[in-house]
């Protein structure tokens, strides 16, 4: 069996036991590179559609991502090509990123996180975890998810229209990118909605760049009128506007979910879907190794931030992204940052040791839960 896989995907050993795996650069993948492959494994940088697959032997496409806006699922269905993706595979990594981003912004504004009202826009796998964690930290959480509301949501969080949530202290975005339909999310935060946000508010986007009108955001921030903003995603990736990066509080190259555990979980979910499709038995996963200790008391927001920063420092991604814009090919540098991203573990890779005050016990227990 011939298998073509994105070179940035770890954990391909189970697929290698099934056939020959050829690793390719996902963003520049061509029809010719597919050759006689029957299985295609991609990430979000590969557009999977008729142009790529027409005339190929591909019968199974797997995307090790939460989002699927890069895949023409209609075409795959018409061609009877099986498709699987990995919803929730990196939800914990993104939630850790959002929690750190929130604490960084609160520190800048000299605010206690627990005093903030947060609007979680999108209650999918990531949004639900973010909402749960922020509620555990003591924030007042409301959510916006029109499709979920229409389906009859009966969960722990109050759902409200986006317009009524634009006065929240924190707005964090967790929606798929959709361009059509009654709940399209492209430019969900457009010039009109962004104009309602003030410098005392905070905005975090870790879903898809075009969900926020980047030019309108730049206009607001340049005037000193926009929210304190952290962006992991950009409207015209892999191109990042230098002017916008200079205006945001922190920025990163679409890596909020780039933990090793999240990547391995994504690949494993595709392997399980493939085996189910082919009615094959699953190879067992390796046993967990003993976990090292992570020592940090948590009796304040500052110490919770210090705990998170033992695993990952957002400021380092901001520095690397800023440096990449000085290179001759910034777009290529963006992709190299992602390809050669340092190994990053989620906090449950360790065991926690230290005193935890009552106001932080709920969130710390969630961070280290297996």
Ranges with pLDDT <50 over ≥5 residues?
none
Strand sequence of the main sheet, in spatial order? 8-7-6-9-10-11-12
Beta-strand portion reads 5-15%
Which percent bin holds the helix content? 25-40%
Major β-sheet, in short? 7 strands, parallel
Q: According to CATH, what is the class of the largest domain?
A: Alpha Beta
Structure characterization notes:
About 35% of the residues lie in helices and about 15% in strands. It is an alpha/beta fold. The chain folds into three domains: about 1-85 and about 260-280, 3-Layer(aba) Sandwich (Rossmann fold); about 90-250, 3-Layer(aba) Sandwich (Rossmann fold), CATH 3.40.50; about 295-370, 2-Layer Sandwich (Ribosomal Protein S8, Chain: A, domain 1). The strands form three sheets. The chain has a seven-stranded parallel beta sheet. A five-stranded parallel beta sheet has the order 2-1-3-4-5. A two-stranded parallel ribbon has the order 13-14. Strand 6 (about 115-120), helix 6 (about 125-135) and strand 7 form a beta-alpha-beta unit. Helix 5 (about 90-110) packs across helix 6 (about 125-135) and helix 5 (about 90-110) crosses helix 13. The longest helix is centred in the C-terminal third of the chain and has 19 residues, at about 260-280. The two termini are about 35 Å apart. The model has no long low-confidence stretch (mean pLDDT about 95).
